[in-house]
Amino acid sequence: MKHILVTGGTGFIGSHTVLELLNQNYRVTAIDNLSNSKLEPLKRVEKISGKRAQFRKIDLLDIKALDDLFASTNFDSVIHFAGLKAVGESVEHPLRYYKNNISGTVNLCEVMSKAGVKNIVFSSSATVYGDPEISPIIEESPLQAVNPYGRTKLTIEYILQELYHADDAWNVSLLRYFNPVGAHESGEIGEDPNGIPNNLMPYITQVAIGKLQELSIFGGDYPTHDGTAIRDYIHVCDLADGHIKALENLDNNPGVAIYNLGTGKGSSVLDVVKAFEKANKLKIPYNITTRREGDAAICYANVTKANNNLNWKTNRNLENMCRDAWNWQQKNPDGYP
Ligand code: NAD
Ligand code: UDP
User: Fold this and answer.
1) Residue minimizing CA distance to atom 25 of ligand 1
2) Which of 29, 37, 148, 252 stands the most exposed, by the fewest C-beta atoms within 10 Å?
3) What's the chain's average pLDDT?
4) Which pLDDT band holds residue 324 (cuts at 50, 70, 90)?
């Protein structure tokens, strides 16, 4: 049985991926410093799967703790989710982001290298395409960091590629996620943002449950079919599945591989609002306001490469994403206890 280390394993995408790994009979150790998550998701994962992931509270900046972990456990591969992810916060506190995300990854890679564990799947982001001129976006599209968070993702991509160039025993999968939303269909695990959500889907679910009054739609004058901005929303369970496929593929296709993970379908903000209303039979009050600084008009993926090379495709549509996000919100009105 292969043993996978999942960094950031108690987070939103990490917890859904831990569940999928356990379902597929991997042995899993999750680490997290719990700076943006709680232990509860892993308890819920055990409840759903009937299987337990080991957990260790470890900060990636604590290289001694990482070293001890790798000295005491034989891992086959690492899926690396741990990182800070708030764009606005990264603009205000760039050093916090460079230190946590970049130094944390350097520590992880150093310790992996020392232990001879050279398989890594990394959470990158569509943010590495900056303000894309053309969608659908292919993996070879121009790259650009437009904020410190994006720069950490781009830098880590380069670091991992350079590691492979220096030592071809490394196998690296860089997964560029588009917009992960939704929750496990059980409603046991889901997205648990701190305070007022920045992202669209949790904002909508909090309006639906009455915690927030109305949705502000940022911009109604974009060059799109209804004037609102277009993104590629992907169900977090489809995304988790993509990680398992990427992990399996590390053995078949050694080297560095880069994949967009999205649905390949663009949806406007108003499309999401309408899909949410239809899926859940309720009304979302909204108001169209000014554009949010730094937002691209249109951003969606070409996912042909992941479809073909990873033998992966998404199985859930926008209505499924809306239904599952709402189910999670209703079952957990205040998030995890
Ligand atoms: P999340 O915040 O729920 O999970 C990240 C986890 O990393 C958290 O549990 C946090 O406590 C942990 N962490 C942060 N710094 C750490 C450190 N130094 N040591 C140990 N643990 C640490 O975020 P998520 O939405 O699950 O995202 C997972 C990854 O995917 C992140 O790297 C994020 O940048 C990337 N990503 C997310 C999205 C998105 O929209 N959610 C989109 C693209 C990429
Ligand atoms: N958005 C919005 N109102 C909100 C939050 C987001 O209109 O309260 C829009 C945002 O402008 C973008 C889309 O919804 O066009 C997705 O935003 P999100 O922050 O979820 O993801 P992003 O693509 O910006 O990373």
Assistant:
1) 12
2) 252
3) 97
4) very high
Contact 85 CB / ligand 2 (< 6 Å): no
Ligand 1: centre distance to CA 101 (Å): 9
In the predicted model, is pLDDT for residue 15 greater than 90?
yes
- Enter the tokens of residue 105: 């990854």
Asked if the bond preceding 142 is cis, omega within 30° of 0, the reply is: no
Q: Is the pTM of this model over 0.85?
A: yes
Q: What number is the average pLDDT over the span 210-219?
A: 98
Task: CATH number of the domain at 117, please.
Answer: 3.40.50.720
pLDDT band with cut points at 50, 70 and 90 for residue 176: very high
Give catalytic status of residue 149 as yes or no. Answer: yes
Structure tokens at 114: 């020392």
Domain interval for residue 16: 3-182+234-263
Please report whether residue 316 resides in a domain: no
Q: List the alpha helices (DSSP H) in the chain.
A: 12-23, 40-49, 63-72, 87-92, 94-97, 104-115, 148-166, 200-208, 236-252, 269-280, 304-309, 318-331
Q: How many domains does the chain fold into?
A: 1
